[in-house]
Design brief:
The structure is a homodimer.
Chain A: E1 3-5, E2 9-10, E3 13-14, H1 18-27, E4 35-39, E5 44-51, E6 56-64, E7 72-78, H2 83-96, E8 100-105, H3 116-129, E9 137-143, H4 144-149, E10 155-159, E11 167-168, E12 177-182, H5 190-198, E13 202-205, H6 213-229
Parallel strand pairs in A: 1-4, 7-8, 7-12, 8-9, 10-12, 10-13, 11-13
Antiparallel strand pairs in A: 2-3, 3-6, 4-5, 5-6
Chain lengths: ~230, ~230
């Protein structure tokens, strides 16, 4: 099932953007009367009819498809040096299931900027491919300090590589909301860890393997998914 | 800690191949008397001294580092159309922990050949980066039928997307050996599933999310790792 995405919805009419429209009408050659499926990334699936020649879509049916997971996951990941690693991570996280992504600027972060539009496009593509209908919230870069001091309900975890006491996911009680920070390639600094623990983040172990940051992020997504919903 | 890799070991002398030697002596500029660390990918870490001008390495100490996991994992994955997806998957699987990878040719596999040398190079790089010292065995493409009919000890699982009875990982007992088949993008065919079940592969659920093949492969690696060793 091919899904299109738009947020351009006026009553019962949808308009696709240039890229989506090209794919719909030029590549897949949808014509007057064809049925196409469109999501708004907010949990809705619209069954639509094509109205040539305007290429507008008329909504025939709206299905509410709230994301099926039993938990809300907010992952805070470092801005990595290589964009393709961030993109890979976002794609896989959306496939598995994620609600919110923040990008952390820590002491040892390799980069201080990210291409937010590109990342959002990756998220849209992954959402459509995996037949999800809810886009995660994707937040711009935020400093470690600001992120740590903000308020979050539920379980707050920090995944780090230092030789300190930390527990694996399965030893924490299941939660309705998770906020998890992943360290950069050089790990958090001891000061950053102390600050997070003081702000009631609990230390998370991802085992003895030394994982790259994006792999650690996926380990968290996967682990929480497997523990709660599989 | 920078790790080099070679299988060219003659008594107490190691020789690095051209790429590794270039990195060691030209990029990192190791000189006579420097200490370098080398693995043979078979669970050994050699502490070596550089002997200029020959660039040979003399072994000072050998440490046995068997892979630390409590289980053996053999993953059979489809040959995917895009090589970079296979490469990502191999890299991440080696980081998390894997012992053997086979490439399946199924009815719906998109490609029938893989670049085995390239994949082995990815595995070596991931092994070094994650401070593992054991390379997984990487097998060439094998037909679904041949793979299914071979003998494997331990738990044999097939991950598929059909609406048949299947259990999640956590409902299977922990095993010392896992052999897991992952379906191609179009899934296994019903006949293939029947053949696998007849050969005593048990059906594995990875939840309700529709995962790409390489994501499903990582879900299995991660799930088994988290269940057994974290």
């Amino acid at each position: 099932m091919q899904i299109f995405y738009t947020q351009n919805i006026q009553q019962d009419k949808l308009l696709l953007d240039k890229t989506e429209a090209r794919h719909c009408f030029k590549v897949l050659r949808h014509r007057n009367g064809d049925t196409v499926y469109v999501t708004d990334g907010k949990g809705h699936l619209f069954t639509c009819s094509v109205n040539s020649p305007s290429e507008a879509l008329t909504v025939i049916k709206t299905t509410c498809c709230p994301q099926p997971r039993s938990y809300y996951l907010h992952l805070a990941v470092p801005a990595l040096k290589k964009p393709d690693r961030i993109e890979w991570m976002v794609e896989k996280a959306v496939e598995i299931g994620i609600d919110e992504i923040s990008f952390l600027q820590t002491h040892r972060t390799e980069k201080n900027k990210i291409n937010l539009e590109r990342i959002k496009a990756i998220a849209v593509s992954a959402m459509k491919q995996s037949l999800h209908y809810t886009l995660p919230l994707i937040n711009p870069i935020v400093s470690f300090h600001t992120f740590t001091q903000a308020q979050y309900s539920g379980l707050k975890l920090i995944a780090h590589c230092m030789n300190e006491d930390k527990k694996p996911l399965k030893q924490y009680e299941q939660a309705a909301r998770y906020t998890v920070m992943i360290g950069p390639e050089g790990d958090f600094t001891p000061n950053e860890l102390r600050e997070a623990l003081s702000a009631n983040f609990l230390p998370l172990s991802l085992g003895s393997s030394r994982l790259r940051s994006e792999t650690a992020a996926l380990a968290v997504c996967m682990g929480i998914y497997l523990i709660n919903d599989v």
